[in-house]
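user: can you give me the structure for this one chain? tokens are fine.
assistant: on it. calling the predictor now.
[tool input]
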Amino acid sequence: MSNNIKKVMTVAGSDSSGGAGLQADLKTFEEYGTYGLTAITSIVTMDPDHHWHHAVQPIDPELVHKQMKTILAGGALDAMKTGMLGSVEIIKLLRSVIDEHAIQNVVIDPVMVCKGEDEVVQPENGQAIRELLLEKATIVTPNLFEAGQLAGTGKITTLDQMKEAAHKIVELGAKHVVVKGGKALHGPKAIDLLYDGKEFVLYEADKMETNHNHGAGCTFAAAIAAGLAKGNTVKDAVAMAKQFTTEAIKQGFAFNQYVGPVWHGAYNKAEQRMVKP
């Protein structure tokens, strides 16, 4: 085994169903051949007796700090990503840790809504992310709703509006932004848009008619973080993440009547490598 395995930290919520959150991050990091570490910010549970309603339980910021202190006792990280951050206090804490340890390859996934839920999770966190984390981000990975919230442009329905939001987010301090259009835009392609302040790059894949895409956003951001940790450029890391996530969506499956996660082992065909008795 190599003694140069890259280390990637995720600061994110726990999805008990396993498809999204830090569980998606860890599975993705493993598939990329990197070593994942977790600081849990919140625990998300879903109620099968009430139409899979989501409940979010934040973790005390002091305990989050202790988790990150444990992680950083292992030396410098090669990359990190965020997911659901739980509270403004945790966002402030994370900013101080990034500064103190000069963490590089920072991927900010500004999670604001649980898939399947319409209400914004802790809306005050969006402002704190804008003020404290964007300027530390190597890349920010918002979906259309999150991009509109961060940029202050409101609902996004066109490629031109994606470009406008991306421009505004970079103006707020992010080095790069990739706006995840996914299958939300009209047309046959699932489109993601990368912007570095100078150039727009489109990443396209054929749309898939599936509801088994739970965790796709977390997986995409985690794949970018792992790609950066392994020394890829931002453009290459995003391109690889797009391929990885597309395959994961193609092989998504039904967890139950409410949700279907992506399959993180699809790109590397993990299920075909299993040793049969």
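assistant: here you go. Helices lie at 21-31, 61-72, 88-101, 124-133, 144-151, 159-171, 216-229, 234-250. The CA atoms of residues 31 and 265 lie 7 Å apart.
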